Every structure is written in structure tokens, then in C-alpha cells.
Amino acid sequence: MSEGYHVDHETLAERVDDLADFEKRAEEDIAEAEQLAAAYKHLWDSTAAEEYQRAHALWSKGAAEMRAALAHLRQSGANAHGNYTAAMGANTGFWK
């Protein structure tokens, strides 16, 4: 028989909160970077402007992928926490 596994639901809930905090900080950093780039964008012309646009498009795509991945990871953790908590409650109910 296998030993199975153990889930520390409090730690899982803390990690879900950590992910939400990280998402918020990342959004703030992304907004700040966008503002800084916009403030200096008018100084670039020709090749520099074109390269900036290409780099910005790539960066924006990566930021969107990061947002989606973080949201998925956070939601998966929240779902797991809810499921484990419900299972613990149901199992405890069997012994009452």
C-alpha cells in the first residue's frame, strides 16, 4: 500500500494569497513600465521606433501569457483548497 500524500490546506491557502499578491505587484510593475516607455517613445524614430514596436509586441504577448498562467495557477490552487477543505469536513462528519 502506498503512503499517499498530505496537503497542508493552510499553507495552500497562503500560497494562493501569495499568488494574488504577486499578480497585483506584477500588474503595477507592468503599468509602470508602460508609462515609462510611453514617456520616451516619441524620442525614437526610424529603425529604433520599429524595433521598439516589435519588442513591445513581444513583451506584451509575454505579459499576457504570464497573466493567464498566474490566474490559472491561482484558480487551480483555490479550487484545490476548496476541495480539500470540503473533503476534510465530509470525512470528519463521518466520525461524528
From TrEMBL:
Signal peptide: none annotated. Keywords: Coiled coil. Transmembrane segments: none annotated. Gene3D superfamilies: ESAT-6-like (1.10.287.1060). It holds the Pfam family WXG100. Residues 16-43 form a coiled coil. This is ESAT-6-like protein. It comes from Segniliparus rotundus (strain ATCC BAA-972 / CDC 1076 / CIP 108378 / DSM 44985 / JCM 13578).
